Amino acid sequence: MQVLRTVSDLRRARSSMVGSVGFVPTMGYLHQGHLTLVRRARQENQRVVVSIFVNPMQFGPQEDLLHYPRDEERDRGLLEGEAVDVLFIPSVAEMYPAGYSTFVEVEEVTRRLEGASRPGHFRGVATVVAKLFNIVMPTRAYLGEKDAQQLLVVRRMVQDLNMDMAIVAVPTVREPDGLAMSSRNVYLSPEERRAATILWRALQLAQGLYSKGEKRGRSIRDQMVHLINSEPSAKVDYVNVADAETLEDLEEVKAPALASLAVWIGKTRLIDNIMLK
Ligand code: AMP
After folding, report:
1. Which of 43, 93, 209, 253 could be joined to 214 by an S-S link, Cβ 3.0–4.6 Å?
2. Which domain CATH number covers 14?
3. Residue 76: inside a domain
4. Ligand 1, residues 129, 145, 147: which to mutate, most atoms within 8 A of Cβ?
């Protein structure tokens, strides 16, 4: 595995690759969720490129940029084990040199949910992903359904900007008790880790209600909020049942609908979602 840190080195490596290139952008501190994306990319492409970049532009001023977990050595070992060809780890100065002034704004689908709770977040995501796609020029990029709105934003951007590549969505990888794997889970104390299962339990409640015939979006949301509030260390940021394509709130739920939530467990903000079937 080549570890490259500059755009020019990456471009040189890319120009010598023949056949399809699968790309997995990450912020590092890798877990089985990330590695599932990498394995899928490995199966479907001749070459695999993974990036690790904790993108300052997608963090708000009060968010966890400075504390975001990092362990480059461990990440390298894990990616070696997956037969990754190139690991791209640019510095912030390499991605945003002095004078940097160009940003990608995806409208509409960014207005709600994470976009509403984290102003500027998707501007940062779209900008860095557009840059990474322009640098790596992948045949296919692999993104997790864990970040369902991010997936919609990136798909929209690729379509709107005529980027010549495919976006492949990979289902969320969970711990045995249902908690979605996330680099941020490391912030949780043992007690908070137990409490964090409330996210998955609320999503399962939504699925159960929908399966039993409950079609009123507000009723599903209210019961999810009620369940989450029964967990003392959990605080709801948002709970939502929306059209899976537009993310418009649904009064009457019709599949494909996305139930999604953001919940604070102590000082850690976790997100998760489920497609109602
Ligand atoms: P991150 O490092 O958190 O920015 O995530 C990098 C990529 O991995 C994104 O496309 C995420 O959606 C995806 N990802 C993160 N956690 C999971 C998970 N538990 N299951 C599947 N994909 C995930």
Report:
1. 209
2. 3.40.50.620
3. yes
4. 147
